[in-house]
Amino acid sequence: MTLTRDEAAKAIAEMETAQRRSSVLARYSAGGPILMIWGVEWFICNLVSQYGGSAANWIWPVATVVTIGLTFWMSRGRGAVPARKSWKAFGTSAAIAGFFFGLFTVLKLTDMHAVNAVISLAVAGAYVVVGIWTGARYAWLGAALFLAIMLGWIAFPQVFYLWMALVGGGALFLGGFWLRKA
Amino acid sequence: MAQADEIIHQSVRLKIMSALAAPDACEPIEFARLKAIAGATDGNLGAHLVTLEGAGYIDIHKDFVGKKPRTRASATAAGRAAFRDHVAYLRGVLDGL
Question: What is the ipTM of this complex?
């Protein structure tokens, strides 16, 4: 069997497209369950913030540390974050946490609704950026999350935590389910 | 110079092998995902998987997740080698070797 240059070029293009598609779908599948656990974390923590009184003071740091731990455990060797790069992902998380600590200190931001909204909007924005570079589904999910957060902030300020629990956490959970099915 | 592999060269089979024999492919890939990658129908994909399995290029794994049947495929060592050779042939043609 002998192929012409055009046939070979077409075959290579098909092969590269298939490999790109395969990588994107693998990333979706690996990232989906992680988004789902963050959806559960948002749901629980926001619900406690709305109705749990002082428990809101400790639920966020505890649940966030637990969820970050679960994220690394689920990511290792599953394609979401290659094992050899997990320390970079950990460093990235620490840098982001440090950035927000600095940001809120400089802005003297003590309204916990605003803190919640800013962090959540940053997460949504990050998904849009990740989606632009790695797979459109992340971008759609980030955009939907961004709009949902803004709608909750503008239209339902009295029940913002409840909104974030149901709509924010729900969007992450369902979005993760959508990715996992890829 | 490497030779063209007639089994792998067919468009759907090339896409299947591209996914299964990619350097970063370390786990079997599910039927539904292969369908999305290859852009094939159930029947079409099934037939091409059987052809690749018959050539010894892939293994097909059938099991159950709960009560749901699951079909996955992975490249064999022979399949990875044949795919590498076929890609080398294609690049050779492009480079005019």
Answer: 0.87
